[in-house]
Amino acid sequence: MDPENMAGQERRITFQLYDHWIELAGEREMPSLRELSPDDIAPYKDQMVLIDLRDKDQEASLQVIGHALKEDLEEDLTGKCLSDIPRRTMLSRITDHYLEVFANRAPISFEAEFVNKEKERALYRGILLPFSDNNEEINFILGAVRWILEKDMPPREAVMPEAPAGEEIPAPAAERPLVPLEQQMLECRRLAQGETAADSRSRKSLYRALAAILDFYIDTGKAPQEYQQLLQQEGLKVQKRAPITPVLKLCFGADYDKTRLTEYAAALDFALTNGQTGNTLEAFLESFKGGIKGCVRARREHASGLPSAATKNSLEEAEKIVKNMPTIAGFDLTENIPQEDQADPDKEDFCLILGKRKGTSVEIIKLLGEEEERTLAALLKRVAKDQH
């Protein structure tokens, strides 16, 4: 089995599960488990686990455990609590991540390596998907993982026949196969444009699209002639000072909002400098304070060389102080709402507003964007300082 084929097939399986979850959820935050049919998960059932969270007074339990996971356990823990799972088992690698689902209220993917109870090094990749009966409380978490022992990995130079899809196992992220750029571009366009209205408004879908685009950008460096042909077909050119921007234009369209393209390019550049790839970008953006905006701000601060760790801490302190200040007025925006904020009405962030004041009357002209982030940081610190 070719490790590169394993990586590509496994990655598709992870996306297939995530895509199906998104399709079931529609415009809701998460779907109900009742909507999932046995046929939907048949290809992955041996490597799946269903965590039952319905009894809030009891510890989460294992309702269903796939055959391959049971074999790794050497015992059947169906109906048992999560605390009964032995360490250094593959099942423990899945359940170790389940609290992250509660923190994000969204699917999470993960990949790593570990040493099992037989002292063997194993490589694995998996995904956890939350389900809710009332779109509020998470009642179930469905997990799927695929793994391979290092001793079972063939030499990279070995050429071996492709195994059936059901036996495909993940390979390390570094062994991701090089897919033709045009094929990657078409997939990135599908993700960027969204298959449904709900997709196009979802921050999760945006992060997923940017993750695919990041891998696409990385691969353009491995096939420069093919990349140049794609750019020529779209009337685009390589930009030395902003190398990621042409890739974003290929995926989102040359007429896409320039401010957004600049913002996405800065965030992806920051992610690259922090060692991220498409496999890790979604989790990176979800966990990084401020998401895309936070990455843009951090990149600008790093480029300017101005803020030290103490400066960053003082900004965090300033944000805490300002958030506790009383509100003097409030109103709802009806247009020009950032795409990633549309599906997250409860998201709280600071912004700058340009307006005209006449006496006690104030007219809002524009909600200022990322270009004014450094101004915003300075104002927050000044306002917080005035409170002391």
Can you walk me through this structure?
By secondary structure, this protein is α+β, with helices and mostly antiparallel strands. It has three domains: 3-175, PAS domain (Beta-Lactamase, 2-Layer Sandwich), CATH 3.30.450.20; 181-298, no CATH class; 323-339 and 348-387, no CATH class. Helix content is 45%, strand content 13%. The chain has 16 helices and seven strands. It has helices spanning 3-25, 38-41, 67-73, 90-95, 98-104, 181-193, 197-201, 203-220, 224-233, 245-252, 258-273, 278-287, 291-304, 309-323, 339-342, 373-387, and strands at residues 48-52, 61-65, 108-115, 121-131, 140-149, 353-358, 361-367. The strands form two sheets. Strands 2-1-5-4-3 form a five-stranded antiparallel beta sheet, with helices on both faces. A two-stranded antiparallel sheet has the order 6-7. The chain is globular and about 75 Å long. The protein starts with a helix and ends with a helix. 32% of the residues are buried. The model is unreliable at 1-10, 156-176, 195-201 and 306-313 (pLDDT under 50).
Question: Briefly, what is this?
Answer:
This protein is α+β, with helices and mostly antiparallel strands.
User: Which CATH architecture of the largest domain?
Assistant: 2-Layer Sandwich
Number of domains: 3
Instruction: Briefly note the structural class of the backbone.
Output: alpha+beta
Element pattern in H and E: HHEEHHHEEEHHHHHHHHHHEEH
**What do the pLDDT scores average to?**
76
Work out the strand percent.
5-15%
Helix content: 40-55%
CATH class of the largest domain: Alpha Beta
Rg is 23 Å
- The CATH superfamily of the largest domain is PAS domain
Q: What is the CATH T-level topology of the largest domain?
A: Beta-Lactamase
Name the shape in a single word.
Answer: globular
Poorly predicted runs of 5 or more residues: 1-10, 156-176, 195-201, 306-313
